[in-house]
Predict the 3D structure of the following.
Amino acid sequence: MTSARATSLLAAAALFVASCAQTGNIQKIEPGERPTIESDEAGLWMQMDRVEEDLQTSGKVVTDPDLNAYVREILCQLDTSYCADVRTYIVRNADFNASMAPNGVMIVWTGIILRAQNEAQLASVLGHELAHYIDRHSLKRWREIRSTTDAAVFFTFATGGIVGILAGFAAYDSIMSFSRDMEREADTRGLTMMRESGFDPRESAKIWQQLIEERDASDEPEKKSAFFSTHPAAKERSETLAKLAEETDNTGTTIGRERHAAVTAPFRRDWLLDELRQRDYGRFEVLLNQLIEAGMEDGELLFYRGEMHRLRGEDDDAEKAIAAYTAATGSGNAPAETYRSLGLMQWSAGRTTEARAAFETYLAAQQDAEDRAMIEHYLQQMQ
Amino acid sequence: MKRPIAILAMLAVLGGCAAYSLVDAKQQTIGGTYTVEPGIQWSKITDDKVEVWTVDGASLEAIRFYSGMEAGDRLFTVSKDVKLPTYDPAMKASEVMEFVVDSIARGGAGNVEGTALRPAQFGTVPGFRFDLSYTSSDGLWFDGLAIGATIDGKLHLIVYAGARQHYFPKYRDEVERMIGTIETT
Ligand SMILES: [Zn+2]
């Protein structure tokens, strides 16, 4: 099994790493640099190389060439010299998170790409993660832990009860959670890279602000998102980043809203559905509003506003759902499913004439509807 | 990062704390509400409103028989933090499929899709059927199928799923045949 293999590899790597931990000052890594074979750093790399092999065949990795090329292009624009050393993996996950392994594996969750409203915001996340790589934060953290904890305990903790390779990364990530100083260092270097490569650094603080708004609207505010648990003090960081961005006039101005909207358009429906399935309706509503304000295709977003009300099903949600679907159909780019959902809601409300009309429009708009037989059956039932 | 609790892990836990018993190849009554007739021997564990049957292990393939699900019932429980969708007798077939699909997604699976929803007979009762696909938390592809019906406001549902490579196809014919033997009591 994959997980067993990953676990035994981690254990093997732990022994290897433990046997040759080194001390001393840690310089930033140079472009193209590889750790020497006998070093503890090589042990860390080896461990992640094996996990990366499994990651490459995981069904959770988004393989779309255009989307991958887009993310890489932004990364390489941030810093051309490190571009070849970092491999980006887009992982389908609704939460906002990204991580950086010492061997150059950068994982970007789709929840980040969905929430980034433009190229500059995505660049701010990629720049932050790249900075962790350049400043060898994993190695620093590893040596800090080595000096205080027994390596065996560390790795038992890191691999205990874990199913799967992504979970392996997750455990690695939480054990390897960087210190506040490292996070600050990554913020600063990331922002400098943004500025020098032409991105508007003011977007960096904005993405944090958006996340704070989402968190404040959450149905379960006490349940922190993955990101807030590994990246503390969002408000303070947002303010610091905003200040840093204003420090010099010599700065990039690219925001790249249209391009980001166009590249992500084919995926937005799936990613919004992933987010809706979290069933945190308060948070979802704020996210939708943010994307509408940012000028993303509104027919699709209004459809999802309807879906949110339909699924929540409290108080006047039924009528709000119908209103949102109706607004979506007036916008010109509503998905055909809007009519199906509208039909279901009208039928539940006892308005069979409206329900029939909606279902018929759905079938006309979606010639190859997967559920045509079922919808036709509904139409018969209503007669 | 947050670690979504995998369906696989959940099944493994189920398997660990409940004892499996053998199901012989003869007519079996599910929850006192319907019967099926397996053609091979399965192993099963039983919970409140569900029986999970498997041959090679529930993390590879399993058929789950739900009976008498009522308002507020969940397909399974993961942990207290994970809000799973609840069943509502007012659900149309489209919404029952959504309920199943969203539950699997909340259980930690990715790329979850329900497709080809269509009317089907659940024994002699008019019901519905659909197909499933998803990736486990390990990133392994699974296929599945489901058939169900609402009788007197209670949902009866059979969900079969297995790893796309080898396991789903291995018992598919047996599952299809068994579906053909459903009799509601
Ligand atoms: Zn960081």
Observations:
- The mean pLDDT of chain A is 85.
- Residues 31 and 81 of chain A are 6 Å apart (CA to CA).
- Residues 268-381 of chain A form a domain with the Serine Threonine Protein Phosphatase 5, Tetratricopeptide repeat fold (CATH 1.25.40.10).
- Chain A has two domains: 3-247, 268-381.
